[in-house]
Amino acid sequence: MRIRHLSISFEEYDSREDLNGSDRELLNRAMESCENAYPPYSSFHVGAAVRLSGGLIITGNNQENAAYPSGLCAERVALFYAQAQYPDVAVEAIAIYARPTGFTLKHPVTPCGACRQVIAEYEHRHGNKTRIIMGNGDGAVQVVEGAEALLPLMFYLEELKKR
Prior knowledge:
Elements: E1 11-13, H1 21-34, E2 44-52, E3 57-61, H2 74-85, E4 91-100, H3 113-126, E5 131-136, E6 141-145, H4 157-160
């Protein structure tokens, strides 16, 4: 038996104003997209903004449904749209922002496991790491380089292929 340890590094900023210009712009676009979310059941508004190589920004927001599994997270809405419309263009960065109604978030919002796996899939597809920018309210912002920082024991495409 072996015991192994995992650790990650991430950047933490006191506020979005401390981000560099392109990261701040992306987080601001996620904030704007958050306003169009449809969360009648959770009251948890989430917006996402994806920057493609070349600079194009695609936004998305969470869409809930009375049949709960039919809803979709903001990150996947933005990523799926981006890859459906621009399949050969790599995702450089994604920003996620949340604004709940009726409660307060103490930490930046992070992608759920399914969204982390989707980010990992697009990283593999395009051969690059995605910068992931996570924020909420006017509080701290956290940034990681690549899905593996948030999903260290992810599925790898090569391991799923038949030999």
